[in-house]
Amino acid sequence: MQRCELIRQLLAILPPDSVLYETEDLRPYECDALSVYRQLPLAVVLPCTEAEIIEILQLCHRERVPVVARGAGTGLSGGALPHAQGILLSLARLNQINEIDPLACQARVQPGVRNLAISQAASSYGLYYAPDPSSQIACTIGGNVAENSGGVHCLKYGLTVHNILKLRVLTIEGDVIEVGAEAYDSPGYDLLALLTGSEGMLGITTEITVRLLPKPESAQLVMATFSDLAKAGEAVANVIQSGIIPAGMELMDNLTIGAVEDFIQAGYDRQAAAILLCESDGMAAEVTTEIEKIEHILRASGAIKVEIAQDEAQRQLFWAGRKAAFPAAGRISPDYYCMDGTIPRKHLARVLSQIERLSAEFNLRCMNVFHAGDGNLHPLILYDANESGELHKAETFGARILEICIAAGGTITGEHGVGMEKLDQMCLQFSDAERELFLAIKAAFDPQALLNPGKAIPSLHRCAELGAMHVHHGQTSFPELPRF
Amino acid sequence: MQRCELIRQLLAILPPDSVLYETEDLRPYECDALSVYRQLPLAVVLPCTEAEIIEILQLCHRERVPVVARGAGTGLSGGALPHAQGILLSLARLNQINEIDPLACQARVQPGVRNLAISQAASSYGLYYAPDPSSQIACTIGGNVAENSGGVHCLKYGLTVHNILKLRVLTIEGDVIEVGAEAYDSPGYDLLALLTGSEGMLGITTEITVRLLPKPESAQLVMATFSDLAKAGEAVANVIQSGIIPAGMELMDNLTIGAVEDFIQAGYDRQAAAILLCESDGMAAEVTTEIEKIEHILRASGAIKVEIAQDEAQRQLFWAGRKAAFPAAGRISPDYYCMDGTIPRKHLARVLSQIERLSAEFNLRCMNVFHAGDGNLHPLILYDANESGELHKAETFGARILEICIAAGGTITGEHGVGMEKLDQMCLQFSDAERELFLAIKAAFDPQALLNPGKAIPSLHRCAELGAMHVHHGQTSFPELPRF
């Protein structure tokens, strides 16, 4: 179908202000927060109702037009990058909270509702929605479902998939399906988990039933200072192994500490090799006991200083430093490349040392600031895009980090998704048989590959061309990589 | 392929004691714990290694022979019922614990390892495996994965899917795939969740990496006695809504209490309409505070007596009554039919009243003893198979209970699976579009439908013939049923 005819048909479904097609109107949608990839779509549609989306999907299905869904565009892997021959389906206007049920501790919300808005709306009932990606002011729950987002507190409270009960989803044919249940378990294959994190490739979510939790009675934060990064890594494993699951457990290295202190004065020790922030929440008595145990373990793990926040203001200040780490990186480097990989916690110390060696090898600084309790690394590679070759060097450095993660038995993404960015690494992470299954599942939902084509799951052809050797979950040796 | 030729080829792969084909040898495999369905397979194979299973699958795939996997055969929905034209693949001999990693708090085990054996092996490290189906002495971890089993403690610690990290799985072609990761999240579609609970229809698991938890420092039990069943139901919702997640929360009605007290003297009040057992575990200080709060809520919810176990012996005695409920049913009735459905907790009181009314309508006694915290009902319908028509009446009664569960926004199974038993109810629970997706996913893994054919997912044809009206997760009205 010609572009003009497509736009004409979209305008027959939607009011004029819901269809964008002028280049200047399309421009804001050309990328998500990973701006190295940019592409204009044929048109952007901004439906207000599920009924409109059904008609849009029926049209696209009939005419074989690719459909890329978009929430707030805060994604970091290019998952919402438009398709040159497709439409961009913005879900921003489906932003209603349909119901809050305080008795059942759940809420039914539309996909365009912002993550934080759910907790704000539930607040008067003493409830909140637990997953808290750092973009939670802006990102939408629909995008969280598509990426299976995490956050600082997901160590204790789980990822998005652990905090949703039901999804209402449209297939590419425009059929409504409901997956999951308000009850504890659901028969049939677990489509709720399958759809969560599927990066918009299997269906379009139009309603999400989320689980709400009672706000913890109390929260307390411990800051531990280390003169050795590896020891901080070991301390993380020691805390978890003791049976404590902290509400949050974040690690920052010396470069991060300095950048943060220059930006806001959080009270971190600039001389420290690493700082570990460890939070406990729950009933007051539980928090007190847990904080004592954590303090003991951190000291026994070699912390040179352990401070418990004196009051709520200091707790907030300690956290403020962690939350300012990304903007702080922007202040000490013209550009930075944020990686996202996970490793088993027990390998934290070793992998951090390896990243340090790579940093020297590539002659690029790397800030380590991450969800240590989950083993979810976020190395920020600092570079200058105006220096010839530095972007390429940063990308190569980043790819090497992901390879190290795989070799350590980890994965190439913790919470940012695969999107466009990590298609090649998917060839390393998974075998042919595994990727064939992914493709078969995709075909089961969307045989014409119209939903977000070209993302998340690489074609067998791409992996064959890449010629990369599959690292079977850390089991197979990978000659050029350090062994575990 | 003729049966004799099949057996000959199986004997070429396996040693003689690993292939059973005489009728008397096949007889023990003709059913699982749901003995109303019985069927002899062509042969039973008992491989000892993954390599043997690969050859068996390649043979069956090539010759289009159905394959039904079996763990310990403790399943309650007929999921391991043999196929008349197929082989039964017993995984009982793959019973090795390959590794326990106390640092990472995980274990790699073969599918034939018994659930309890994992905790026993991990015990010396102070660790245990949390999901505890009532059959945990006998049932195997492979069967738990196939059914996504729960147990008394899954309210706090989750179902099987929440306690496993990785699966090694063989496809029907005999390809090895690994799904999940030792790290916190994994890219690609969530095949770990998809395979867990798939009732042996997508692949054959050969290794499971389970998460181990540190044994709680302390556990304490509260027993609350109610003069009104509905009030006990409300008390459950009140406890959960307060933000407490008990380690276990079990409800028994008057009929159960009497049967249990006649059998073992657990110290329950025979006059009570209902008894609620509510356990707290964790750090000692946490348990003390939580038990106080639970006690307060139970009293406020109308409990006429609240007792805290005086010592470990009394705690075990209170639990012993609950654990003896099923055999106690066997003592007061020649036969019983155990149902398994889940409902949102807030509807507990109403659904229990409805079951009471159905009991009068069918003139069959029904014992209610169940995982109240999860809303996971286990009504035991008492009947006498020797009385003409009673089995049919019990089955109709059971089907009505499941319909009530669906109408209440619940599901037709909490933890026992669909198997053979609930194929028809799947037509009520899911729409055509939803079941079509299930079938498409099945075809993505197993296009010739050789793995456990005829189970768990009904054909579109079967549902059409049944002519039953789909109850869309409690949204659609269902005329002959009480409304919510």
UniProtKB/TrEMBL annotation, chains A, B:
Keyword hit for Oxidoreductase: yes
Gene Ontology MF terms: FAD binding; oxidoreductase activity
Cofactor(s) the protein needs: FAD
Pfam families registered for this protein in UniProt: FAD-oxidase_C, FAD_binding_4
InterPro entries: FAD-bd_oxidored_4_C (IPR004113), FAD-bd_PCMH (IPR016166), FAD-bd_PCMH-like_sf (IPR036318), FAD-bd_PCMH_sub1 (IPR016167), FAD-bd_PCMH_sub2 (IPR016169), FAD-linked_Oxase-like_C (IPR016164), FAD-linked_OxidoTrans_Type4 (IPR051914), Oxid_FAD_bind_N (IPR006094)
Record-annotated FAD-binding PCMH-type domain positions: 37-215
Keywords (A to Z) from UniProt: FAD, Flavoprotein, Oxidoreductase
Cited PROSITE patterns: FAD_PCMH
Entry keyword Flavoprotein: yes
PANTHER family reported in the protein's UniProt record: GLYCOLATE OXIDASE SUBUNIT GLCD
UniProt protein name: Glycolate oxidase subunit, FAD-linked
Natural source organism: Nitrosomonas mobilis
Gene: glcD
